[in-house]
Amino acid sequence: MPEASYASQKPRLLKDFDRMAARVKRVLISRYGEEPAKALIGESRREYETLIPQIPYIGAKSPMLIFLLPTTRYLAIYWALQKRGATVEDGGRLIYEMCEAEAKAIPGPVRRLMGYLWFSPLFLRRVRKRAAESQQRQHPGGYVFTFVEGDGRDFDWGIDYTECSSCKLLKAQDAMELAPYVCAVDKVTSELLGWGLTRTMTLAEGFEKCDFRFKKGGETSVATCPKVKGTDTNSA
Questions:
Q1: Ranges of each domain in the chain
Q2: pTM over 0.85
Q3: Residue (of 74, 46, 71, 44) closest to 56 by Cα position
Q4: DSSP helix, strand, coil percent of the chain (3-state; round to 5)
Q5: How far is CA 183 from the centre of its chain?
Q6: Rounded CA gap, 51 and 233, in Å?
């Protein structure tokens, strides 16, 4: 039986793309001007529509889609930029600024609630369950990860990813050079949601795993991010 796909969800996914484009339009206009920005959004949307049937299938309602679908949108934008002669560094900087704009568009009270829930017992029980389920590798394109108990001092809880759907997508599309830049946006999310993320290695850069460690109220330290606007390779 052939693996399922997200092709049937194309109308909804394109609406999601349009909402993203509306949130980051100012970033694109400030960088390229109004008409070029409009053209870039249109081309990126067409690229995204082409990509939708090729997204690694990880389940119809998998919560991990909140990571995989943005990667697909970033790839579509990167392809559109490449046609305009942009480098991967250009694409990485733009993706970082777009992610920052999207995150800041979330109202402050909602961001604080999301940050609180990230460390709640109910959420952590769900993460433990999903980690165990991921080991079964139900979907070849899925994430595989283990839950790491906090040490009571340096971090509250963590995840070690040994397989990444975003990397699988980018590898299948011959675009792994973009992967470290996609990983860089975790810094933005951590800072705005209060994750206190520390990470010393990623699959995107050739390591055997991604070691995410979260500390409520802690500083963000993403040591392997490439230098894009607003990042530092050692700390927030």
A1: 7-222
A2: yes
A3: 71
A4: 55, 10, 35
A5: 7
A6: 31
The C-alpha angle with vertex 16 and arms to 12 and 18, in degrees rounded to 5, equals 115
User: Which residue reads 């694409």 in tokens?
Assistant: 91
pLDDT tens digits for range 172-192: 999 999 999 999 999 999 999
Read off the pLDDT of each residue in 34-55 and give the average, rounded to a whole number: 97
Q: How far is Cα 2 from Cα 20, in angstroms, rounded to an integer?
A: 31
Instruction: Give the pLDDT of residue 181.
Output: 93
**Can you give the pLDDT at residue 61?**
86
Number of residues that make up the chain: 236
- DSSP class per residue in 23-62: HHHHHHHHHH-HHHHHHHHHHHHHHHHHHGGGSPP--TT-
> Residue 144: phi, psi to the nearest 5?
-130, 125
Q: Which residues pair with 211 in a beta bridge?
A: 160
Strand order from edge to edge, sheet including 157-163: 144-149, 157-163, 210-214, 197-199, 221-222
The DSSP output letter for 219 is P
Rounded Cα–Cα distance for residues 25 and 180 (Å): 24
Q: What is the pLDDT of residue 169?
A: 97
What Rg do the C-alpha atoms of the chain give, in angstroms?
Answer: 17
Give the pLDDT confidence of 68-98 residue by residue, as tens digits: 999 999 999 999 999 999 999 999 999 999 9
Look up residue 36 and give its two tokens. 């070029």
